[in-house]
Amino acid sequence: MKDVVGSHDLLLVTLDTLRYDVAVELAEAGRIPNLTRHLPGGSWEKRHAPGSFTYASHQAVFAGFLPTPAAPGPHPRLFAASFAGSESTADGTFVYDTPDLVSGLAKEGYHTVCVGGVGFFNKQGPLGSVLPGLFHESHWTPEFGVTSPHSFENQIAHAERVIGELPAGQRLFLFVNVSALHQPNWFHLPGATREAGDSRETHAAALEYVDRHIGRLFAAASSRRRCFAIVCSDHGTAYGDDGYTGHRLGHESVWTVPYAHFFLDPAEAAA
């Protein structure tokens, strides 16, 4: 990452609440082709979330603690704050001397942009302003939120406008919190009803919805120069697994998440 930071634009996409098992099943079944074509080896990496709900997990991610490979470590990190004795800071790690990754990238000349999704990014109160407040500019409207059936399309359209207005030479760190997977997601599955509610099947349909549109985001992010992209879940969620529902709890369906990072070349914009 020491070679990437400063020469590439950066994209971080959190597919909020996406379960690892659902992501793997859809990739193996060919149901998310636009994502799968970018996954190294065509597969998601199995990782452990740094938190069991959005706020905790993103605080960790923005401190440089991305989801951890689901195997004994230590595992070298891409980003890390300067910290004496850190066992996960390696030769290739981008090390910053600010409190968080966002300000560390800003110090390197990046313009930092947040396109929020779930309520912790809505800026409608002090708590919902903490995470977006890390960025130079942050954006949220109800049309980006969990109740909009077209949330991801709306987020992408806004990101495209932001990118289009930047000077060509300005490096960009773009963060998008995708709300579509989060409850409520029943409206993404044809025939599902509000009364029946959300299920593992509607969760999968929401991922298919995201996949249909994510190519536009990748194209925009790589339209100015080569882009390094990270796509992952911040945590999973339970749909009756062992009697559990939701997240902010210690269950395998919550702690295990899909992760991938890869490069996007400018040619992607014309694909």
UniProtKB/TrEMBL annotation:
Residues 10-253 form the Sulfatase N-terminal domain. Keywords: Hydrolase. Pfam families: Sulfatase (PF00884). GO terms for molecular function: hydrolase activity. This is STM4013/SEN3800 family hydrolase. It comes from Streptomyces vulcanius.
